Amino acid sequence: MKNDKMTISMDAVICTMYDDSLKVVVKKRAKAPYAGRYELPGVYLKADESLKEGSRRCVKEVTGIKNAYMEQMHTFGEVKRDTRERTISITYVALVPASQLIDDYGDFIVEDAELLDIDDLAGSKKMAFDHGKILSKTLAWFAFKAQTSEIAFNLVDEEFTLPDLQKAYELMLGKPLFKANFRNKIKNLVEETDYMTVGAAHRPSRLYTKI
């Protein structure tokens, strides 16, 4: 949606959990401003689509994923955040299990994008525009949401181990959790399946699903 005064963009913080860290999907800008720096995926909002539709279109165009968990995180509207024109960014967070972004060989499957540690980019000048600030805000948002909701379940597959779920919570909260306390907290949220992990470096673990 664009007029002679401002532009509205939908920016997506697409996150996953991989290699025991939170990763975010970014692209490297090929032209000015900020050529060579990383940016978050974004699209301009169309006049005939809702905010949620615009954000889903952004995620689908980048990753091909249609049904990622998405939630509006924040609106960024500083006057000079884009030197080209006044731009309002409505930012959504999308959470995707690593199995949808990483192949069996451990390679990132999204073309023309990279999967990097969010901690390395939050607040960093490696990011274009104010996207480093957006990622800092995202980490604070994660810490709040992990305490008040079940959002961390969206970082694991439909069937998951309790250590993987605990790691998802720890990464969002930004701190380690005691195993016994964590399992007591989530015991009414999960149920055992009849299956165990196979082929892992460690001994098999029971698989669970969310109730």
Short description:
The protein is α+β, with helices and mostly antiparallel strands. It is 26% helix and 27% strand. The longest helix is centred in the middle third of the chain and has 18 residues.
Task: Give an overview in words.
There is one protein chain. This protein is of the alpha+beta class. Helices cover 26% and strands 27% of the residues. It has helices spanning 51-63, 118-121, 131-148, 162-173, 179-186, and strands at residues 7-18, 21-28, 38-39, 42-44, 69-76, 87-95, 114-117, 190-196, 206-210. The radius of gyration is 18 Å and the shape is elongated. The mean pLDDT is 95.
Keywords:
211 residues; alpha+beta; seven-stranded mixed sheet; elongated
